[in-house]
Amino acid sequence: MGDTLVNRKELNPEGGPEAAFGARLRSMREARGWTQDELALLMGYSGRHISGVETGRKPPTRRFSLSADAVFELDASDTFERAWREIEHGSLLQGFPEYVGYEGRATEIRVYEVGAIPGLLQTPEYAQVLADGAVHRGAITREQASERVAVVAERQAALARKKPPLILVVLDESCIRRPIGGPEAVDEQMQRLAEFAEQPTTTLQIAPFTMGWKRPFDLPLYILTMPDRSLMMYSESAQRGYLEREGSAVLPMLTAYHQLQTEALSQSASLDLINQLRKDAL
Fold it and tell me: What top-level class would CATH report for the domain 96-121+158-281?
């Protein structure tokens, strides 16, 4: 069964995780000049099945996703299998799985976080304690907690590539003041921050409480620079995440981020504060 122009259905990747999955499958298939039947033959499915997944009429399975990853030779940074897990478990905020796919390909990553260490810098134990806390509150299931921890590990692994991105991180002071886990876990996380700052392609700054009204952001913010120098931004509240791809909307936030860096502690002073907190905890 081929997908002729006569009965071709327009896809809306903004329609949800399944719609985004189907739209991406079609886009990658067409980029290779394959019909649905040709892709079906490579993946071990029928053309009708491919059509159903592309248009959102048939939900993808893990087996289907892994087969697509193999056929399109996708690496760990942005797989169909990862997108399937979001559809299956729904443990991540809307917009975040798509953001993670872009993050794995970005040349520059700017991060601002409030209240907790961002996933890119978390130790496994820190990530697990946060996930366990969400389970205890009844916010997610145990299976979803495992999913969240796995995503943290995958995001970090995706950035350990031959040419790593430039990563600039500004943490609100609350991130390092809030204890997550026992004393050993906290010390290990602080050591992880210090090691991160020592890398040649990273910077780490603390936005102290004394910044007061000069702090331009109240919520977490991520700004990506892609290989073609385009900009995109991911922001989130407690209930949802939002991915902005329009460069004109991202530019003012990038300017505000630069202002944040100017007012925040230098990396040296930030590390001094982190080390002082470690000493006080002993």
Answer: alpha beta
Nearest to 81 by CA among 63, 101, 56: 63
**In angstroms, how far is CA 14 from the centroid of its own chain?**
17
Q: Is the pTM value of this prediction over 0.90?
A: no
Angle between helices 80-89 and 17-31 (to 10 degrees): 160
| Nearest one of 264, 186, 174 to 220, comparing CA atoms | 174
**Confidence band of 175 (pLDDT split at 50, 70, 90):** very high
Q: How many Å from the N-terminal Cα to the C-terminal Cα in the chain?
A: 68
Q: How confident is the model at residue 1 (pLDDT cuts 50, 70, 90)?
A: very low
Closest to 247 in 3D by CA, of 225, 268, 279, 272: 225
pLDDT tops 60 at residue 93: no
Distances (CA, A) of 229 to 107, 109, 225: 8, 12, 6
Percent residues over pLDDT 90 in the chain: 62
**CA gap 60, 87 in Å, rounded:** 9
- Give the strand pairing for 108-113 and 221-225: antiparallel
Query: What span, in angstroms and rounded, lies between the C-alpha atoms of 132 and 110?
Result: 27
Which CATH number applies to 13-89? 1.10.260.40
The structural domains of the chain, with segments of one domain joined by +, span 13-89, 96-121+158-281
Distance (Å, rounded) from C-alpha 116 to C-alpha 176?
7
Q: How many residues does the chain have?
A: 282
Upper half-sphere CA count for residue 58 (Cβ side, 13 Å): 16
| CA distance linking residue 56 with residue 51, whole number of Å | 8
CB 143 within 8 A of CB 107: no
Amino acid letter, residue 46: S
